[in-house]
Design brief:
- The protein has 242 residues and is mainly α.
- The protein contains seven helices and two strands.
Amino acid sequence: MPYSNTATLHWDYRDGRVAAVVAAVVYSMWTLEVVLPGGPGTATGALADPESTLGLVLDSAHRTAAILVVLAAGLGLTLGAKRPRSWLTVSWWSMAVFGAASLTASLLPGRCVVSTDAACAVESLVEGAQGATATQTVLAVVAALSALLASAALTRDRRRAGERAWPALALITVAQAVAAAAVLVLAAMAYASSGDGAPGVALGLAERAHLVTVALWLLAVGVVPGQWKRSRGQRSTVRPAD
């Protein structure tokens, strides 16, 4: 993006920070169920009817968010802090896997409008919903675990670097771990029971809690500055080849 007074366009690390923050906002858009029609509430595992206004909004928004996550991770790897930080590298790559898995899942057919919605993916599979496949469930699980690993690795890196924000990152990671575990356990129970037992309320609550923690993690990625800072003298832009 153009941050200099030259006519040359280039990517800047600030683009990555903005992408992460915007993605965090998008992952919070499920709260629109309060004002838009089509939100089933916590009575079902799905976050929205795919044919509703809310469903259409979430479907497009989360696909865009997945692209932004991959962009932020790529810019973090190429333009972020370059001192030897193995944990930071793990965090960026895990974030890229999360974005890629989410994007891939969003392109598959099915009724789940949020690609990381493991609850919906499992319920759709056991109920034999049209377009539901095991691939969607696997991708949702991969996305959840990748996001957790990215958050944990970032916390570890920020603690070793003496970042003052690391306790907040640790709290976000713990909350995300609890929410992800709840979603995966309840989804496994739903699969084992072949959809019997109506676990929709618990699944709905757990999935919403997980989306909150994912949004907080992405917000922290964009707001906390340490993982983006380079040592003096290092370049902070990538210019396209002529």
